[in-house]
Amino acid sequence: MTGNILGEKFLIVSFGESHGKGTGVVIDGCPAGLPITEEEIQKELDLRRPGTSPITTMRSEADRVDILSGIHDGHTTGAPICMMVYNKDVDSKPYDLIKDTPRPGHADFTAGVKYGGFNDPRGGGRFSARITAGFVMSGAIAKKLLKTCLDVEVLAYTLEIGGLRAEIESYDQAREFRYSNEVRCPVSSVAEEMRKKILKVRKEGDSLGGIVEGVALNLPVGIGEPVFGSLDSELSKALFSIPAVKGVEFGSGFGAARKTGSTNNDPFILKGNKIATSTNNSGGILGGLSSGMPLVVRISLKPTSSIAKKQRTINLAEMKETDLIVPGRHDPCVVPRAVPVVESVIAIVLADQCLRFGIIPTVVPRID
Amino acid sequence: MTGNILGEKFLIVSFGESHGKGTGVVIDGCPAGLPITEEEIQKELDLRRPGTSPITTMRSEADRVDILSGIHDGHTTGAPICMMVYNKDVDSKPYDLIKDTPRPGHADFTAGVKYGGFNDPRGGGRFSARITAGFVMSGAIAKKLLKTCLDVEVLAYTLEIGGLRAEIESYDQAREFRYSNEVRCPVSSVAEEMRKKILKVRKEGDSLGGIVEGVALNLPVGIGEPVFGSLDSELSKALFSIPAVKGVEFGSGFGAARKTGSTNNDPFILKGNKIATSTNNSGGILGGLSSGMPLVVRISLKPTSSIAKKQRTINLAEMKETDLIVPGRHDPCVVPRAVPVVESVIAIVLADQCLRFGIIPTVVPRID
Amino acid sequence: MTGNILGEKFLIVSFGESHGKGTGVVIDGCPAGLPITEEEIQKELDLRRPGTSPITTMRSEADRVDILSGIHDGHTTGAPICMMVYNKDVDSKPYDLIKDTPRPGHADFTAGVKYGGFNDPRGGGRFSARITAGFVMSGAIAKKLLKTCLDVEVLAYTLEIGGLRAEIESYDQAREFRYSNEVRCPVSSVAEEMRKKILKVRKEGDSLGGIVEGVALNLPVGIGEPVFGSLDSELSKALFSIPAVKGVEFGSGFGAARKTGSTNNDPFILKGNKIATSTNNSGGILGGLSSGMPLVVRISLKPTSSIAKKQRTINLAEMKETDLIVPGRHDPCVVPRAVPVVESVIAIVLADQCLRFGIIPTVVPRID
Amino acid sequence: MTGNILGEKFLIVSFGESHGKGTGVVIDGCPAGLPITEEEIQKELDLRRPGTSPITTMRSEADRVDILSGIHDGHTTGAPICMMVYNKDVDSKPYDLIKDTPRPGHADFTAGVKYGGFNDPRGGGRFSARITAGFVMSGAIAKKLLKTCLDVEVLAYTLEIGGLRAEIESYDQAREFRYSNEVRCPVSSVAEEMRKKILKVRKEGDSLGGIVEGVALNLPVGIGEPVFGSLDSELSKALFSIPAVKGVEFGSGFGAARKTGSTNNDPFILKGNKIATSTNNSGGILGGLSSGMPLVVRISLKPTSSIAKKQRTINLAEMKETDLIVPGRHDPCVVPRAVPVVESVIAIVLADQCLRFGIIPTVVPRID
User: Fold this and answer.
1) Do C265 and D241 touch (CB under 8 A)?
2) How far apart are CA D334 and CA D129, in angstroms?
3) DSSP-assigned states of every residue in C55-85
């Protein structure tokens, strides 16, 4: 399989570059009969759109979805769905200046070697986070599918930025408040501190990282395959494809390494006549299969690699060390705009999983 | 694709159960002409063999490899390699007693739902860590392949157990000392503390978790595919298939979330005439592609779910809550025996990656 | 993907060689809860067993199935099913004599180049038709699954040998009489002529080819995916993996090239309240999807490449042309023993297809 | 995997409909550094363009390629290449009239069942042969890649139409003359007869089928994988995805069934210091691997299903039999326009195969 493909039954193909005609996605395998409008997709896209607040990049893109195939008469048809957003506010000049000096933290060096220098260097080309627009377009459809067929809901939100961590009280709180502020953190007091810290660090020419938490509610028991196709395996694979992700953990995650079996095991209990666990250290996954408890995953995002500060690098043409000031317009912290991307990626994986096991049918039942 | 398959060009298929005839693996796609002996595979298998020290399970298995196909005249032939170890010391009686009471932390409940109760329950059946013997058998061949064709070396070792963390000084230290003690930690003073803590917790009827670090040295630049097929994506997918893994991170990992761009970016430097970075927060991966620096990954392992302490669960036959004492023989801490498994899984993924891109040829050159 | 794997949800992995320990198969993805016995599998294996009549090879193998995993308490468990037959009557000496002189029509030359001479040459090694024992073992399970879950039936039979073609009157006739004679042709008068022709040609040191027809009855409408995953695409891919197959056609097949639209189109009619077609030139496939009519496929098998007559070839060691008498024991016509293999391969593909689209569930319902 | 994807390393994703915005393709995995212009792609597209002669459909489409990603500065970049042609001359009205009466020979009935009536019915929607424009766009790149890296050439031509068969004298003749006439048959005298027969049958409101032969010259020995990934398996899978194909055969094909081993086996000979065979009944494939001889494949195309004659079908709304006159504009014989499609599909499969085994590198060497 090639690298720009994710999934198997709800399969997405990503294409496009930062400074080319645009970026897009083909979804193959989406069930027929799902009602979906351009507006529903646009609404999600708007959540990751650049240039919307002082804490994001100043690149201004309308990011209007263009549906090229697969949707007819307001429903998916079962055919591949191709969607694109076009690039408008492109300024490629700065990249000419630095074409021989790979930016630290970026793929310039590794991609240059891999593609023999033929890769499109403008704005990071194929390695730009701009390609996640395609993740969000397909995520919009995946979320609608999960909700319509299974009443499954996926939520993501900012948990931590620059060391400031929010204590989430409930998933209801997360659902209600995560988009009530620019940093997409459900706890407004912490959100305000995060915002201030981002602005301060931006002023210093630096950047911040953070943690996004994603949750899936109402998943049936038994999704996933044991061993290599475990639900955590499939989710982590997809989540590591989001630029800047350096760690993925489920439930107690890295904390589990410091617990004992008696405190980490989740006792089974009855909730009415439903089997649940009293704690959720497993993050909703047991033996690689969904347990029916909320699926909980956290990802660590490194601070944006593009910073205004002077950095050391190599001039490849002369093969000697040199200073570099990275040009271009960038987010001082990728966490807020990553929130809808994480939500989309989780939804895409879950839609795919549910289709693999026949839990979502290949035709969405007509609802009257 | 089904769940028991990993990889694409060096592809492994896992089969077998804890208390059935045995567990095994088929490797498809291994290049022809690799010299390999039963002894080389056995040596690796012996590193994960149970019953070898007071800190492992008392189940005693010889775990002798039986090569069923694909190796002829001391070389791989290019045909699928099937290998098995047989189960001898099987005691399935305890599992009859608890068949209606799912063990907390185990897959009993989720697997029972998924397979309609037809799954083999004896010793966890297909969900037992015993299936990792197959990972190690195929890892032995993957490691030989990487070493022979590319001089790539994979090392794993215990970094942390029960909150005790070792400071690794160098990969040379790790290579030399990781198997010098029962816990597989290269720092012998910490190793001794870990061992004591495991024995203490075992006595209390409890268990411990920890962290294993894996390293790959000498990888060429550019391994991996951008986006969904990134090297971190592929490695994390494989590592989450190891039982008990709850988190995976590369380089600065979750720590990256608390750093700034200026401290997390790795400046490019010249080492002789080779391009390197002065730090390795990226863990050897930039834009999803290997950077030529050591690949560094850490996995969090939860404490063994099987503990001697009384736990709460549900009696499924009567649908009411009940107490449970988990029977059987178990490791008080899975970390030491996970070390060769992690090493194998990393090697399998890297061999697969190198074959996908033609970096390892389909016939190993004859060396005289 | 590697070459020894077929399918996606009912996935089989073939392994083993003609003169090694044996040949086998792993099935991954078989639903849990299918009742199956060793006897049911053995019965199918016996249909392709060598040495059973004067028109087959004299190699004598018991071909007793050994189930190594995945079946417990008389049911499939949802875990991978590994099955093997062992090689007993092996005589590898003749192959030493001809190791430098590739046999015409065989893979000796191409495999030698591909694997750098490391491939197992004994009895054709991995390229021997002996590996189809694994197809039949997995076919036995696929056929049971199709019958149990969907009442789908797969039938194959000899249609033509050495230019002698049978006129099949009905699928009932085919079901009842195809195994009533050694050549597996439902029309006994033609069967007898075929048998005589095979014996005559054997005496001349030569071999015959023929055509096998396969039929699947009672398939639901809509199996298959348009474009590259069409039902004919998937079936042909699998059928061309059977050694000696040189052509695959559906319905009117190559005859369609000589018809007009008005005679080749199948008019739709009502049969009771079921939609059918009055003819079946489509072979049960329209637009790559099953139509509900019988699926009809024919494969052309070339005459056995191993013949007793003297042939021209190259002595590779000396790089000059030479004469060759092929040693070993061989079928004078592979058609009769190919019948159960074709039936199995069709069943495997259909089981896979039905699982891909959720038409066969992942747990077989318990029947009381 | 989903149905609209072909290949693994040179992977194509097809999308689009007959009467939607257009049809397109994404190629993932194309090596970086291949020089390619819009004109080169357009030239191939023009060969399958409709409305160019009296023997093709009157639908008039410019079919201008729009390259949306993956090509920069005149070279492929290693990123996914998305290309589209737009639909202009669309007349969907006729399809409204027949939406309840499935056209014989078409996918209307099977697709309607599969997609619950949500499939786009206009012009056959996703099932229209119009989607093969995407095959040709990607085929143009595959052919350039094979030629540039390996000097491999792929040729297809009309062998037979309406029972009139051409005797091809040499591949040089085929290369030179296949596009010298409207029917794409290298033998001009037969071509003229074919043309007349097509016009005659069109006048009768009927249609014709035929046979296309495809050849690949200069392939290295050993391409393909034994068993399920054999070169014939992969090619047949791809070729059956072309609408109207009912049979695929290699070398002596169905004729092999009527030969003896001594006449069908190809003796090995020396041609200079190269190993060849004196005949080519194998069609260039031995044991599923390329033999170095010309690869020869033939496909049978059924007569166009859309004919002007009255046909019987079912009115699905009333569930009773009825007469149908199929509206719309159609080719009286699909064979001529299938020629560049067959050539493209063969090239796509071969490019993919060569990339899978590292025979084509991931960066095309710069030629100065």
Assistant:
1) no
2) 9
3) TS---------EEEESEETTEE-SS-EEEEE
Report CA-CA distances (Å) from C11 to A5, C6, C81, C189, C266.
21, 6, 10, 39, 34
C102-127 per-position pLDDT tens digit: 999 999 999 999 999 999 999 889 99
Residue A241, judged by CB atoms within 10 A of its CB (0-12, 13-18, 19+), counts as: buried
**Burial class for B243, CB neighbours closer than 10 Å (0-12, 13-18, 19+):** buried
- Work out the number of other CB atoms within 10 angstroms of the CB of residue B148: 18
pLDDT over 80 (residue D235): yes
B29 touches chain C (CB under 8 A): yes
DSSP symbols for C142-161 = HHHHHHHHH--EEEEEEEEE
CB contact residues (below 8 A), chain B span 95-124, against chain C: 114-116, 118-120
Q: Do the Cβ atoms of D235 and D342 come closer than 8 Å?
A: no
Lowest-confidence range among A342-356, B326-340, C47-61?
C47-61
Q: Verify whether the Cβ–Cβ distance C15 to B68 is below 8 Å.
A: yes
Beta strands in chain B (DSSP E): 5-6, 11-16, 22-28, 66-69, 71-72, 75-76, 81-86, 153-161, 164-165, 210-217, 245-250, 268-271, 274-277, 285-286, 289-290, 295-301, 311-315, 320-324
Indicate the average pLDDT of chain D: 95
Pairing mode, strands C5-6 and C11-16: antiparallel
Q: How far does A62 lie from chain D, in Å, by closest CA?
A: 18
pLDDT at residue A367 tops 70: no
Confidence of residue A52 (pLDDT cuts 50, 70, 90): confident
With contact defined as beta carbons under 8 Å apart, do C368 and C33 qualify? no
Among D138, D258, D298, D323, pick the best mutation site for testing chain C contact (most C Cβ within 10 A): D258
Amino acid at A230: S
Which pLDDT does position A366 carry in this prediction?
A: 78
Three-class SS state of A2 = coil
What are the structure tokens assigned to A367, written together?
């609802």
Q: What local confidence, expressed as pLDDT, does residue A368 receive?
A: 57
CA distance D340 to C81: 44
State whether residue C165 sits within 8 Å of chain B by CB.
no
For an interface test with B, the pick among C26, C66, C90, C96 (most B C-beta atoms closer than 10 Å) comes out as: C26
From D175's Cα to the closest Cα of chain C, the distance in A is 23
